[in-house]
Amino acid sequence: MDRRIRVLVGKPGLDGHDRGAKVVAAALRDAGMEVIYTGLHQTPEMIVEAAVQEDVDVVALSVLSGAHLTVFPRVRALLEERGAGHKLLTGGGIIPDEDIEMLKQKGVGRLFGPGTNTSDIVEYIREWARTHAHSEG
Amino acid sequence: MDPLVERVLQGEKSALARVISRIENREPQAVALLDELFLHQKAAPRIGVTGPPGAGKSTLVTGLIRILREQGHRVGVVAVDPTSPFSGGAVLGDRVRMNEVALDPGVFIRSMATRGSLGGLASTSREVCEALDAFGSDRILLETVGVGQSELDVAQAADSTVVVVVPESGDSVQALKAGLMEIADIFVVNKADREGADRMVHDLESALSLKNWKDRWKPPVLKTVASRGEGIREVNEALERHAAWQLETGQLSHRRRESVGARILELTREAVTRAVLAKAGRPELEARVDAVLKGVESPYRAAERWAAELLDTANAPSP
Amino acid sequence: MATPRKTMELPESSPSGAELDEKLQALKKALEAYDQAVARNAGTHRHVSYDTISGAPNKLLYTPLDTAGMDYARDLGMPGEYPFTRGIHPSLYRHKLWTMRQFSGFGSARDTNQRFKFLLGRGQTGLSVAFDNPTIMGYDSDDPKCIGEVGVTGVAIDSLADMETLFDGIAQDQVSTSMTINGPAAIIFAFYLACAEKRGIHFDKLRGTLQNDILKEYIAQKTWCFPPHPSMRIIADVMTFATRSVPKWNTISISGYHIREAGATAAQELAFTLADGFAYVDAGIQAGLSVDDFAPRLSFFWNSHLDFFEEIGKFRAARRIWARVLRDKYGAKKRESLLMRFHTQTAGVSLMAQEPENNIVRTAFEAMAAVLGGTQSLHTNSMDETLALPSEKAVQIALRTQQVLAYETGVANTIDPLAGSYYVEATTNRLEREAEEYFREIERRGGVIKAIEEGFFQREIARSAWQYQQEVERKERIIVGVNEFVTESKIDIPLLKIDPSVEPEQLASLKKLRETRDNGAVKQSLARLTEAARGTDNVMEKILDCARVYATEGEIRGAMREVYGDYRETAEF
Fold it and tell me: What is the pTM of this model?
C-alpha cells in the first residue's frame, strides 16, 4: 500500500493573485502530499470535474476576489451532485469572519486568512485525512 | 463482478477515478480489479509524448485531444510529474495547460506522481492506461515527466512515441540523440516560430539519414506551434500513418508482444522479490550481505546461489 | 544590455592595499580589529535573521570602505542631473509635493462617479480608477465567467456608455486620470477617448496614465487577454497612436508593484521591471518611433515594502540604471527620456489581518521610504485591506498618513537626505549590481518574452515567496501580532459592504444597450478590427471606431481573439 493524501489547489474566479495558492501548494508538497494544481481562472464546474477525475481527498481554494459567497457554496453543491460530498472543501483568502461562519454552516471546512502558518493548514488536512479519508466505498 | 468495475464499464468517471487510486496506491484489491477490467479492454492505441521540460508537451497533448475529439474519439490522458525525493510529495501541474478541454465529457485526465519510479512514468502508469481502456477511452495519451533523460519506459508502454523538442534544446538533444533516436516514432520541433527551428529540423533529419531505415519506420520530423494549434493536425496524421504502418507490417502485434513480455517479467520480478522477502524475511538477506562484506563471496555469486536455492525449493515435488 | 561599471564592483571586493590611500588603510585596520571584537561577542547576538526582507545579507557596520570606489559626479550627481540618482527634479518637493493619489472604484459607474466628485470637491486633481475583475480581464459583465465578481473590487465598465456615466459632470480636460488596466488597456483607453470626443474635447488636452504593462501580467499579476507577442503589437500600436494624437498621455506605467506583491525580492522587482521597461523601448523603436518621441511618456510604478533602507536604495538605483541605459544603449538625447518618473504604492502584502490597526504603522514607514526615495506620487494602503475593500474611515487615515509625512515630519524639506550614508550608498550599489546580473541572465535566455514563456520570472518569484514564508514560519522573521506578541483579539473596525444589487443592474443596462445601439455598425467595426489584427494596420484606431458605436469590451476583445487566441501559463513552483 502506498497511499498519499491528494489535494486539489485551485483559484476560482478572475483575480490573478496566486502567491498564496502557490505557497500553500509548495507547503503541502513538502509535507508529502500530492497536489493537483489547476491554476487560475477556474469555474466551479472545472474545479469539481478535476476533483472527481483526480480522486482527491481535499479541495482547497484560494479566493481573493470577494466572490467567496458565490464560489464555495456552488462548489459544495456540485460536489454533492457528483457524489463527491465526502471530500473536504477548504481554502483561504480575504474573507470576513461573519462570511466564514456563514460558509461553515453550508458545509465548508476551515478557511484560512492572511498570515496563516502553512503548517496549520498541513496539520488541519492531515488530521482530517486521519479521521475521514476513504470512509466511503 | 465487482460493483466498482460495473460502474466503470457504465462510464462513471468517479468510479474510474477511484479504481485508478486503488491501482496507484497498490491497494490489495487492485489486482482483482485489473483482472476484471482486463477482459473489457479494446486495445485502444496508446500514444506517448515525451521530451525535455518546457518543450510544450502539455500544450501539444491538449492540441491532440482537441483533434481526436473532433474525430469522435473518447480520450484518456495520463500526465506524469515527478515526486519530490525529499518529501514524497508532488505538485502535479499539467492540468493548467489542459484547462480548455477539462470540461469535455469525452475526456478523462489523470495526473500521476512518479512515486519513486526513476523513468518518465509512474510504476503503475501502464495499469492506469488499462483502466482507461476498459472505461472506453479509445485513444490514450501518456505524457511523461520529461526529465530530459531517454525515457525508455514510455516507448515500452505506448504504441507510438512522440518526442517533442524546441529550437533551444539544441545542445541537450545533441547529447541525447542516440537515446531519442531509439524511442521516437515521430519527432516534433515545437515553438517552431522561434529562431533555430529549421536548423533543429535539419539536425534531426541529418542524424536520421545516417541510419538504414529499410523495412523500418523512419520517424518524420514535424514542426508545430502548439500554443497556436499550428501543425498539430499533421502530428495526428503522422500518428495515424504510423499506426497503419504498424498494422500492415505486423509491427503492432510484435511491439505489443514485446511490451507485454517485458511487463510480465517486470511484474514477476517485483512479485518474486516481494514473495522472497516476505517468506525468507530480512534476516536471510542480511546473512548474505554479511557473507559478501566479509569477502566470503561476490554479490554475483551470492545472488546466483540464492536464486538456485529458491528454484530448487520451487521445483521440489510438493509433499 | 549595458555593461556594469567596474568601479561599482569595487566596494564588494577587498581592495588591494596599493590602491588605497593612507586614511583608508588605517580604517581598514581599525575595521579588522572591530570585526574581531564583534566576532568574539557573536554568541550574545539575538537569534533572528539580520538579512534584508529580500534575503540580502546586511553587515553590522558600513564604513567609507564600502563606498571607496564611488565618484560623486559620476555615480550621484546633482538632483535633476545625470545620472539622476538623487532625483529627477532640481528642487523636488519644494517645487511641488508628491501627488497623493488614492486609488478607488467600486460598484457601478454611477457609484464611482459620486466618489470621484466627492474627491474632486475636496481639491484632489488626479483620479485613479480601479476596475472590477471582469473589466480587467476583458469580459463583459454578462459573461458566465464573471458571476459574483461584477463591481466587487472595482467599477464595472462594459462600453462607452458606462464610461460616459463614470465621467458624467467631470471635465476630462481638467483632471488627470490614471487607469489601472492592462490586458484590455487599449479598449478602455478607447472608451475614454470616445467619451471625450463626444463632448468636443480634443485628445491633445487629455492627461493621464494607462497602466498598460502587459509583461508584468505574465510575470506576476496574471490578468492577460492575449499571448505575449500580439499583446506587444497592440502596445506598440497604442504608443504610436498616442505619440501622434494624445501627446500628454503616459502610455505605459511600467510596474514592479505586482511583481513584488507576488513574492519577488527588492532586486527582482528592480531588475524584472526595468527589463520590462527596456522591452517596451525596444517595441517602440521596432514600431518605427524615435526613442525621444515616446520615452518621456513612460513612467514607473514601484512597491514600497517594509525594509526601509533597501527600498530607498531600490528607488535610487532604478533612476540611475534607467538613465544610463536610455542614454548609452538607446541613444536617447532628450533629458526627459532619461527620467525615471514614478508612482509608489505601499506594500499590500505587508498588511496583516491580525490586529489590523498595526497596518497604519507599517504603511507609514513604507510611505516614508517612498518619499525619501523621491517618488512623484503615492498611494498609501488602508489598514483594513486584508479584510475587505477599504472603508471611508480607513481611507482617510491612509491619506492623513501622507499629509502628516508631508507637512509635519520635515522629511520633504531636503532632497535625497540619505545620500552619502555608507549603508544606503552600498545598498544602492548592491541592488544595481544584482539587477545587472539579472539583465545578463534574461539576455542569455533570449529576452523578456522568452524568459516569460519559459516561466523563468514566475519560478524565481515563486521560490522567493516560498523562502520568505519558511523564514516566517521558522520565526527567523518576526511579524508583530502574527508570529510573535500574538493576542486573541477580535477585529473591531467597521468594514465596507458592497451593494449586491450592482450585478443585476449592470446586466440589465448591458442588455438594454445591446438592444438599442446600431448593431449593424457594431458588426462592421468589429469585422474591420479583426482584419486589422490580421494585417498591419494600427489596431488602436480600429478599436476606437468600435468604441464610438458602443461595441462592448468583450466584443472588441473577441474580435481580436479570433486572430490572437488565448494565453495559457505554465505552473511554476
Answer: 0.88
Question: Residue C341: pLDDT band by 50, 70, 90 thresholds?
Answer: very high
| Nearest CA distance, C314 vs chain A (angstrom) | 22
* CB-based contact, B69 to chain A, within 8 Å: no
Q: Is residue C37, in this structure, part of any structural domain at all?
A: no
> Would the CB atoms of B97 and C568 count as touching at under 8 Å?
yes
What does the alpha-carbon distance between residue C334 and residue C111 come to, in Å, rounded to a whole number? Answer: 42
C555, part of any domain: no
- Residue A135: pLDDT band (50, 70, 90) is very low
ipTM: 0.94
pLDDT of residue B316: 67
The C-alpha of B122 sits at a distance from chain A's nearest C-alpha, in angstroms, of 13
Domains recognised in chain A with CATH numbers: 6-131 (3.40.50.280)
| Residues with Cβ within 8 Å of residue C4, at least 6 apart in sequence | C432, C433, C436
Q: What is the pLDDT of residue B93?
A: 93
Of residues C167, C169, C181, C175, the one with CA closest to residue C130: C181
Give the domain CATH number at C342: 3.20.20.240
Cis preceding-peptide flag for A73 (omega within 30 of 0): no
Q: In total, how many domains does chain C have?
A: 1
The DSSP 8-state label assigned to residue C123 in this structure reads: T
Mean model confidence pLDDT for chain A: 92
Q: Give yes or no for residue B1 having a pLDDT over 90.
A: no
Please state whether B301 falls in left (phi above 0), alpha (psi between -120 and 50) or beta: alpha
Mean pLDDT, chain C, rounded, equals: 92
